[in-house]
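Hello, quick one for you while I still have it in my head. No rush at all, and the record is pasted right below.
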Amino acid sequence: MAICTDTLENMLKVLGLQAFMHNFQALAESAERDRISHFEYLKQLTQLEFAHRHNRRITNLLKISKLPRDKLLKEFQVNRIAGLSLSLIHRLADGDFIDRCENIIIFGNPGTGKTHLAMGMAREWCLKGRKVLYKTAASLVQELLTAKKNLELNKFIKRLDNFEVLVIDDISYIPYERNETDVLFTLLSERYEQRSILITSNLVFSQWQQIFKDEMTTAAAIDRLIHHATILELNAVSFRADQARANVQKKPKTKEELKDITLEKAED
């Protein structure tokens, strides 16, 4: 098929210079009116193209990250967690640890914001141009098992290697079978000192034998994860429980409840 290059617009389209194509005419008129040099005109067009490509890349990184919800790091209430450093969170969100292939482990009771924090940081890494993938532990284990059954486990793990950070959420929620923990351990071993992992867990390390079943595998898995890792402990009351209690307190009183309150005050 012949490529149509009879006009500047068509040539820019063929070259994939979308921002150039959509802005060259208006910018040329503006440059002529404001007596901007050819060099400055070209510079402004190039800046528009650069910004367009950057935004498109960020949009694509967010899409392939598979983050299920748009959790923002700035909405995570750090002050609710005793001992959690805001400056540490910001430093981790910058993503420098990724170049060193280090890990992040987030412990905490249900409802303390582990997933919110993990998603919020993952989103920040995407915005900084990092390639991230979010998976629940349950779905990841099933994909690993399927790949092993199809004799493609190494290929699947290699595909995951394309992501600079693999977020494994809720690793402690399911009672794993031995074949499931075996493929999970294989993945952790392959990423050791090669790529970064972020893991959230309700169970502290001393209880991880519930996940990996035997003492030796548990010790080996923990050793690989913590060798180069930052550990965050979210020691707090469930945020969801707090919200539920607050909502009950804000709930409008019924006529009977208001009557009882009035009688109590009168008796006082």
